[in-house]
Amino acid sequence: MLERLVVSLANLKQDFARSYSGSAHIQEVLPSSSSEEFPVDENHLQLLHGFAQKNPIYFNSFEEIISGVPCVVYEGDINEYWLNSIKHGSSCQPFYPTWIMSAYVMTSIAKALGYDDLIDIGSGDGRIAFCASLQGLHSYSIEIDEGLVDLQNSISRKTNQNFNPIHADALEFDYGSLDLGRPVFFIGGLAQMGGDILATNIIDKINSISDLRGKTGIVFAGTNSKRNLSGNLADGGWSDLIKRHDLKVMYTVSLPTVWTFDQQDDTPYIYTKFN
Fold this sequence. Notes:
Blueprint: H1 2-19, E1 26-31, H2 42-53, E2 58-66, E3 69-76, H3 79-85, H4 100-112, E4 117-121, H5 127-134, E5 138-143, H6 146-159, E6 165-167, E7 183-187, H7 195-207, E8 217-221, H8 226-229, H9 239-244, E9 247-255, E10 267-274
Parallel strand pairs: 4-5, 4-7, 5-6, 7-8
Antiparallel strand pairs: 1-3, 2-3, 8-10, 9-10
Helix pairs in contact: 1-4, 2-5, 4-5
């Protein structure tokens, strides 16, 4: 099912990007209902629509058939939150969200890999943690920007879905306080934009908690852009850090994000674990 979802979503994004004639700052697509191309739990799918409908970054939506699939297109603007997100000294990347459907696929993979907890570092509007909660994972959403945390809390109340938004600097947060079992950490930020510093700090914190050694996963958002990577294309730009910390790559998946909407390639997400 997951492989089918990944292929269908990638094809949907490419067809939508070619046909889209709007001028919204951001745009993304959600299938209207479960289908052979998108075999998603119908209740989960409606909750994903609820996330978009209750999220003020989206100001418009309309129905459209894309690649033969009935969909809802959501248009939005993140300028206000983007500006606020860059004012923090330890912020590794401005607020640029992945697609909601991509977040759902990512957390589905995390569940399939056997994780019990998901901690999203630099969580933006909380969509990855939100999707993790749908999967039955214990989710935590760590975000340094107060405005984005207020947005998360608002979405949590309006959707009646608790994904534990936490207003904190991820570099200072005590992860031992979360009583984690078998957790997976999602790192927000490309390696070349300070994400490597953030990831190194998180890895050091994990290594300092004896109960987490050997059973923790880390997911990195990468890039295939040669401009961003300066020639280093391995593991989306994370190969040096992966090798340095003796991590093992378990799975890699490419999924649509806001920042790759106008690009042929999508964003690679690299799932790793401690050897």
